[in-house]
């Protein structure tokens, strides 16, 4: 099915996750996906932020194309999250107020981190647990004719099934 649409398997699955969340909860959610900046000299990672706002049923293929484009940009170190995070850290260390960075970083990056070590359990698919009580973790990997997916959340997650 994925090959029939001619889109990236990663993009297809990311958009499927977003659509599922939207159909279930009637809202889009912030996601984080690590993209290896493999063309970068020191092999760092960059944050890939899928764009659910483009994700209306009529735009699924264009949303997949946008996701693939952003992934390519992140792999070639053209992402912005890491750069903004460094600027935020500098502003905090130098006691410089930045309303933009405070607005961007605090809700989008730092509040996703949970210090509870109990959640960091992995499974054979190299998945970590949800990092916030309101969040989920979706991991997946596929073979030639199958996709294995795992979705986890805190027991206390609002509107969670299971």
UniProtKB/TrEMBL annotation:
This is Carn_acyltransf domain-containing protein. Residues 1-50, 62-157 form the Choline/carnitine acyltransferase domain. One of its GO terms (biological process) is fatty acid metabolic process. InterPro entries: Carn_acyl_trans (IPR000542), CAT-like_dom_sf (IPR023213), Cho/carn_acyl_trans (IPR039551). Belongs to the carnitine/choline acetyltransferase family. PANTHER family: CARNITINE O-ACYLTRANSFERASE, CHOLINE_CARNITINE ACYLTRANSFERASE DOMAIN-CONTAINING PROTEIN. One of its GO terms (molecular function) is carnitine O-palmitoyltransferase activity. It comes from Angiostrongylus cantonensis. One of its GO terms (cellular component) is mitochondrion.
């Amino acid at each position: 099915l994925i090959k029939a649409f001619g889109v990236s398997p990663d993009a297809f699955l990311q958009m499927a996750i977003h659509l599922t969340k939207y159909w279930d909860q009637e809202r889009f959610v912030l996601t984080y996906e690590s993209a290896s900046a493999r063309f970068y000299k020191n092999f760092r990672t960059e944050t890939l932020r899928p764009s659910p706002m483009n994700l209306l049923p009529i735009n699924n293929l264009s949303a997949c194309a946008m996701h693939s484009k952003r992934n390519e940009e992140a792999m070639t170190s053209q992402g912005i999250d890491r750069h903004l995070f460094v600027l935020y850290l500098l502003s905090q260390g130098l006691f410089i107020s930045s309303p933009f960075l405070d607005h961007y970083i605090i809700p989008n990056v730092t509040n996703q981190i949970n210090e509870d070590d109990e959640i960091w359990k992995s499974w054979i698919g190299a998945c970590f647990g949800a990092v916030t009580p309101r969040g989920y973790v979706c991991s997946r990997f596929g073979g030639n004719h199958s996709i294995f997916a795992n979705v986890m959340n805190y027991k206390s997650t609002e509107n969670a099934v299971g």
